[in-house]
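Lecture notes, unit on protein representations.

Consider one protein chain, 133 amino acids long.
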Amino acid sequence: MVVTSYHARTLLDIYGIPPGQNAFLEDSVLDLSECSCLFKERECRCPANIHALDKRTFHRDRVDPREDPIGHLIHDCKEEVVAFAGGFSISYIVKKRFWFSVIVGLLIVLGVYILKRLMNKPIPVRVKESRRA
């Protein structure tokens, strides 16, 4: 069964999955035709603030980064912003070199991003069960 992004958002509401928490479609796939994808069928931004990681894994963002990039950083990427600020500040205090500090901050952000992805285990979602609910 193919699920649109609006139906995916309804599934998140039915199952009570909060924004940012990944969901995994067990018995369906997402329709990515209305989404803009960074890579082929991966990392897609869809209507209804749905961020599709692939055809089966998705989550809802609080703020759409295409409309408000700063708001997306503040509301959906707090850990990355704090990691960059901390890494940049500490390395700038120690080394007093701006670009070195930017690179250190970005490397720390990359580490935090990878850890967030590893720790955010998707919650299984079944489309057929949700129709009865």
